[in-house]
Structure formats: structure tokens, C-alpha cells
């Protein structure tokens, strides 16, 4: 075997770095054209593997051995392992919370409180508040978000717009919360302080969120609610016929939110919430469990809860709409999401290992002569990293490491970089179907990013506002040459 230390790897050309990206774009476009909404259930994964194979060939041309590339794949996939386990746990949580009556109760009271004309804006606002309190867009989407999707179905509102409102609110709260992992990661990579970073993000996130709420309110004004009242009452009646509905059913949700807000680890918190949901089902939904099990024995009840954790539940109420709403969940429901993420992370690990991603970024720096161009280049690079590496953490860390020195050379405060990393690295991740965040939202909300992305106003307005600030100089902070002197903003 050849000594790896003697191997000289060739630096990839810009053309070589571009080829796998073009192949991926063409393959994904073909996948969507041929398979439509089903493209994320296999075809997109194959597209990622094909593009990854092209990248491997380029790696061989540049003297990389398969052992080198395989090691990179292992390292890259390991980055997503925690997220994959959380996704599986969320599947179990949805299954037992459907069985326990937690999600149906949220839907019931949501139908009672929310008016169709301002439902979209209220959804974005509620998700924003919850995510700000607990620091997790994923937990918000998997709990409140799932319930809001159910309420929207009951009101016959657009699932795409509702999912866009959930994602917008969840990511605003996540971005502005000191409990959020990405909100802590970005200033650490850029070299600034957490709360200074959060205060500085207000200038981009604040206007984007307010504009988003206005847009969701305007969309709600067009909703025809003339026949909603009777339909909603009927749906509430069907819910009470199928479940025992009451405020006590929300205890699993309150426990989960408390654990998340007190910064308990995500994986055990979510799975504990799933197990608590199973226990709550046995205590408060004995009739439903007996109906699903066929008898009322303890063993049969245990089997129903176990299967809810594994494969979810299938509820038959006589209403086709309600049955589809209350059926689902389980770890197995997330397996396609896991498949998609593994495929995407494999592709991302290959292009990073053989230097293609770094080559693309270095090529971008050549065009970033002004501050506006530098910020725009950072935003597009973060989006590209989300596209290629399929992980928001990579989309923050890699561009952050590569642009940090350039920001320092130009006298820009570290907060400019940290805010820009979040404005794109965090927010655009949910807009990409094969990214861990986009795949999670698709698996949880049952709506493809292709469908909700046009309505995730906050997620694409924020980068646009950041770019506007970069070119106009508004709220762009500069470091003074003398140490320990105040930072000033150009306007």
C-alpha cells in the first residue's frame, strides 16, 4: 500500500469544482420533472449518489484514493448522526402524541380559537414565540407545527402556506433565541459574543419577520370562511368521539417545552416526550387503545403503544379527512427522511474531502471587492454549502472559517460575519429538500419544501435585507484600529 503521507493531492480547478454541482442540479431537475411530488422518496437520493459518483471520479483524477474519500464520507456522515437520531425520535413522538390525544387536543382548541382570516399570521407568531422560548425550530415544528397543520386541514386552508408560516415563525424564534445551537455556533465561529450577535441580528431578522407577518395576514384576507363554521364544529365533534379531549392531554407538550427551555439534551428530551405520550395514552385514551388492540388487556395496550412508537397509528373515525390527519407517526415514517439525509451528507462529505467546496469559495472571493459583494458572496456561499453539504452546521462553519480572515482584513466587526452566517446558513437550510432541515420539515409537516418554500417569507427575506444593508452600508459595523474602543456603524 502506498504511504498516504507521500501522496500529493492536486488542487481542483474551478471547472472540476463546478461539474458535480451542475450534475446534481440537472439530476434533481430531472427527478422533479419525472416524478413530481414523489421525487423526494427515492429519485432525489439517486440524483445525489450520481453526483457523488462524479465527484469521486474527479477525486481519483486529483490523486485521491478511495480510502481517503471513504474516510471523508465517514466523518461527514457522523456529523449528521445526532440529527438522524433526533429525527427518528420525533417520529415516535408524533406517533404516541397522536395516540395520547395530545395533538388532537391541540387541533381541537386550535379550531376553537383560530379564525381562518388571520390563521397564517397567527401560526407564524405562535411558532415564533415558542421557538424563541425553547431555542429549537425542529421541536416547534414537530409539536405546535404538526397541530397547526391539522387545524389548517380542518379549515381547508393551504398546507403550503401554513407550512411556510410554521417554518418562518420557527426559524425566527430559533434564530433569536440564546438557547439555539446555531445562534451559539455562528458567533463562536466568527469570534464575537452571543448576546451582541443576537442584538445585531435584530436589524435583519426584525424587519423580515414583521414583513412576513403582514404578508401572511394579507394572504389570510383572501380565505373564504363562509362554510367553515359548521365544518369546524363537525370536526370538533368527530375529535371528541374519537378521543378524550381535555387540557390534561397537553401535559406531555408542557413537559417537553420545559425540558427544551431548560436546555436538556435534545435526543433524550424528545424520546422521553414520546414515552410520556405512550403512558398518557394508556391513562387517558383506554377506549381508543382497546379499539385499536381488539381487547382491553394490558399486553394488548402495551403492543399498541409499542407500535405507535414504531409504525405510528391508524385511526378510523368515519371521516376520511380526519383519519388522514390523525394517522401516522412512528420511527418508520422517518426512514425516508433519514435515507435522504444520508445520501445528501455523503455527497457533501465527498465534495468537501476532495477540496471542491473550498475551490468554489476561493473562486467567489475573487469577485468580492466591495463590502456589499463580500456579504453577498458570504450569503451565496452559505446557501451553496447548504445545497452541497446538506447540513446547516456545515453551512455556518465552513464559510465562517474561510471568510473570517477576509472580514478582519477589511476592518469589519465580527458581528457582521456572524449575522451574515445566520442570515443564510441557518435560514436557507429549510428551503432545500435534501438538507437535514428541509428533509426534517418535509417529514414532520408532510409538505415538501418545493411547496412551502415560496411562502417561507422570513427565510428568504432575511438574506435579501442583509444584502441590501451590505450594498448601502446601513448597520454595517467596523472595528476601530485602537483596541478597546467603541464600534461604529456606517450608515
UniProtKB/TrEMBL annotation:
Residues 169-474 form the Na+/H+ antiporter NhaC-like C-terminal domain. It comes from the Bacteria. This is Na+/H+ antiporter NhaC. Keywords: Antiport, Cell membrane, Membrane, Transmembrane, Transmembrane helix, Transport. GO terms for molecular function: antiporter activity. It is a multi-pass membrane protein. It is found in: Cell membrane. Pfam families: Na_H_antiporter. It comes from Pseudidiomarina halophila. The chain crosses the membrane at residues 12-34, 46-64, 76-98, 118-139, 146-172, 200-221, 242-260, 266-284, 334-351, 372-390, 452-471. InterPro entries: Na/H_antiport_NhaC, Na/H_Antiport_NhaC-like_C, NhaC_Na-H+_Antiporter. The keyword Transmembrane helix applies. One of its GO terms (cellular component) is plasma membrane. Belongs to the NhaC Na(+)/H(+) (TC 2.A.35) antiporter family. The gene is nhaC.
Amino acid at each position: 500500500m502506498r504511504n498516504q503521507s507521500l501522496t500529493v493531492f492536486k488542487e481542483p480547478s474551478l471547472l472540476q469544482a463546478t461539474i458535480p454541482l451542475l450534475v446534481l442540479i440537472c439530476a434533481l431537475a430531472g427527478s422533479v420533472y419525472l416524478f413530481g411530488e414523489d421525487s423526494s422518496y427515492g429519485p432525489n437520493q439517486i440524483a445525489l449518489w450520481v453526483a457523488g459518483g462524479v465527484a469521486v471520479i474527479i477525486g481519483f483524477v486529483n490523486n485521491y484514493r478511495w480510502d481517503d474519500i471513504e474516510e471523508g464520507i465517514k466523518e461527514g456522515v457522523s456529523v449528521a448522526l445526532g440529527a438522524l437520531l433526533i429525527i427518528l425520535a420525533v417520529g415516535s413522538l408524533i406517533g404516541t402524541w397522536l395516540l395520547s390525544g395530545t395533538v388532537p387536543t391541540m387541533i381541537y382548541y386550535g379550531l376553537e380559537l383560530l379564525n381562518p382570516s388571520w390563521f397564517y399570521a397567527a401560526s407564524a407568531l405562535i411558532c415564533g414565540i415558542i421557538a424563541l422560548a425553547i431555542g429549537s425550530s425542529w421541536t416547534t415544528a414537530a409539536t405546535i407545527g404538526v397541530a397547526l397543520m391539522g387545524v389548517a386541514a380542518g379549515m381547508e386552508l393551504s398546507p403550503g402556506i401554513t407550512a411556510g408560516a410554521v417554518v418562518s415563525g420557527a426559524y425566527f424564534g430559533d434564530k433569536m433565541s440564546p438557547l439555539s445551537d446555531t445562534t451559539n455556533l455562528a458567533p463562536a465561529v466568527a469570534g464575537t459574543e452571543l448576546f451582541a450577535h443576537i442584538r445585531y441580528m435584530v436589524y435583519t431578522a426584525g424587519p423580515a419577520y414583521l414583513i412576513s407577518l403582514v404578508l401572511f395576514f394579507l394572504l389570510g384576507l383572501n380565505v373564504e370562511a363562509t362554510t367553515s363554521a359548521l365544518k369546524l364544529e363537525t370536526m370538533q365533534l368527530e375529535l371528541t368521539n374519537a378521543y378524550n379531549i381535555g387540557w390534561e392531554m397537553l401535559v406531555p407538550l408542557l413537559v417537553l417545552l420545559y425540558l427544551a427551555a431548560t436546555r436538556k439534551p435534545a435526543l433524550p428530551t424528545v424520546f422521553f416526550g414520546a414515552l410520556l405520550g405512550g403512558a398518557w395514552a394508556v391513562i387517558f385514551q383506554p377506549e381508543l387503545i382497546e379499539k385499536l388492540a381488539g381487547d382491553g388487556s394490558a399486553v394488548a395496550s402495551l403492543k399498541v403503544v409499542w407500535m405507535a412508537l414504531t409504525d405510528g397509528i391508524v385511526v378510523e373515525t368515519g371521516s376520511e379527512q380526519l383519519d388522514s390527519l390523525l394517522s401516522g407517526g412512528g420511527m418508520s415514517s422517518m426512514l425516508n427522511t433519514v435515507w435522504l439525509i444520508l445520501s445528501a451528507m455523503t455527497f457533501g462529505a465527498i465534495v468537501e474531502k476532495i477540496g471542491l467546496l473550498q475551490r468554489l469559495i476561493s473562486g467567489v472571493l475573487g469577485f468580492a471587492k466591495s463590502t456589499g459583494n463580500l456579504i453577498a458572496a458570504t450569503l451565496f456561499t452559505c446557501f451553496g454549502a447548504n445545497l452541497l453539504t446538506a447540513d446547516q452546521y456545515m453551512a455556518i462553519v465552513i464559510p465562517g472559517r474561510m471568510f473570517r480572515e477576509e472580514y478582519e482584513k477589511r476592518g469589519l466587526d465580527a458581528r457582521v460575519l456572524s449575522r451574515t452566517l445566520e442570515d443564510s446558513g441557518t435560514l436557507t437550510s429549510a428551503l432545500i429538500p435534501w438538507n437535514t432541515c428541509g428533509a426534517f420539515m418535509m417529514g414532520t409537516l408532510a409538505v415538501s419544501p418545493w411547496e412551502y418554500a415560496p411562502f417561507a417569507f422570513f427565510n428568504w427575506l432575511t438574506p435579501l435585507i442583509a444584502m441590501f444593508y451590505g450594498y448601502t452600508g446601513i448597520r454595517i459595523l467596523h472595528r476601530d484600529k485602537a483596541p478597546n474602543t467603541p464600534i461604529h456603524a456606517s450608515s
